[in-house]
Design brief:
It is a single chain. The chain is mainly alpha-helical. The protein is 66% helix and 7% strand.
Amino acid sequence: MLAHSSVWTLHPLSFWANAHVSGAITWSPQAWTLGSTGASSVLVFYVLFRLSPYLSNASTRTYTSLSQKDKIDWDSRFSSTLHAVAISALAAYLILWTDAFSDKTSALEPWKDPPLKRHTQVSSAALGLSVGYFVLDITLIIRHFPWVTSIDGPAVTSMGGPEMLTHHIAAFLSVALASFTGQAHLYTLLLLSTELTTPFVNARWIYDQMGWRSARIYKVNGICLFVSWLFARIILFGGFFKHMWDHQTDIADLRTDVQCLVLTVPPLLFILNVFWFGKIVKGLVKLLRGQLAKHEDLSPRIIRFTDANGKVHTQRGPASAFSNKTE
């Protein structure tokens, strides 16, 4: 092994363990980190899922009025919001505030692996966190089948529908394989950073259940959802694909199974992101049109109308006050 092998590895097996001549196996620090974090993640998120009904009952009356399926959906969003905040923060730290995956590090210290073959104990812990979350969430989605076909829409379930299941399985496979091989941690963290939008998605659903569609916080959250989605799930992918183009040689040097996921999962997730973004844009346009119509309805107008005696009157007031009068 090269210097600093506890952080930078060359062979996938060395990520997990070192086999000695005596036959003994010594597990690597990254393997211990990944395993313990993954197991802890499943346990913590499951406990949060079970605690959510008690916390929700104590904080809002809305929860008790929900159907059983909607309660399950509500409870799962408690865990998903916490996961989104944690993994977004960890991904931002590793990519923006450290040199762990920087190209500059490769140029200055050429003995280290290329960025796509690097991992650190922090990145292993971050992926372990997400492995545990996705294991629990996919289990909940499958557990609460079957989907119910709506009269006015596609098949839906309390946990999100077929596109959400597709998203979760693709994300889980990417995270699990990167965790197992120690490769493509950079790309996996970039994909996980798109979870930045999740708190706003969850807040929108919860506000809707609470009947807050006309509240200012619902509108502000909608705008935040649009901006975060545009940045994290649309624009970010442009930089992601450019990095892939610039590092074709490094991608070709990855394991075959890792290459397959690197070349298929990001485009698939991007297509889903564009599909969902279209719905977000439609919702935002509808919201803004409603606000504009309300503003116009309340804006003062000068109205000229004729009364029953044929006398012409001029009056100033909101448009709604003259809805039955002739201008």
